[in-house]
User: Which sequence fits this backbone?
């Protein structure tokens, strides 16, 4: 198999990034249309739908800044997406787990960057809580990024375990 065929085999996973973007933007549009800003709608114990706008990053990091962070996060997401795409192209045929992790992160980054470009903030609406502790609201893009990052962490431990067993 040539290098081009090998790269193409992992690029086929880009559909998953597209699916993340479509689901993310669709659910954000529904939340914006159906929910009133900052008014929780109970769905089940410990979970509400609550429309919020986040001008910062994860956990509203830098949300209180004057607006420069919008362009910083747009640039960061664009650079990260390019790096992830190049990484995806360089994967070996056996690295499917890594390919899925990369496209989940890429799809989430692109979903949130769309919000930043179009709205100036990211739409969040999934709101979990326990008693008086409220986890920051998030969205489908954030979920995909978290799952992808978790997969990468698991992969690091898997590779570490494989290299230890091969040296034994």
Assistant:
């Amino acid at each position: 198999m040539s290098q081009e065929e090998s790269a193409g085999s992992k690029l086929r996973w880009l559909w998953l990034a597209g699916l993340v973007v479509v689901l993310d933007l669709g659910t954000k549009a529904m939340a914006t249309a159906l929910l009133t800003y900052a008014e929780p709608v109970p769905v089940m114990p410990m979970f509400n739908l609550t429309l919020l706008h986040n001008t910062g990053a994860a956990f509203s990091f830098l949300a209180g800044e004057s607006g420069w962070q919008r362009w910083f996060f747009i640039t960061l997401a664009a650079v990260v997406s390019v790096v992830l795409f190049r990484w995806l192209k360089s994967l070996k045929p056996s690295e499917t787990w890594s390919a899925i992790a990369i496209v989940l992160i890429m799809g989430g980054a692109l979903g949130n960057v769309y919000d930043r470009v179009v709205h100036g903030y990211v739409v969040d609406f999934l709101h979990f809580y326990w008693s008086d502790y409220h986890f920051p609201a998030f969205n489908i893009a954030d979920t995909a990024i978290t799952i992808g990052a978790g997969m990468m962490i698991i992969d690091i431990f898997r590779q570490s375990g494989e290299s230890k067993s091969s040296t034994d």
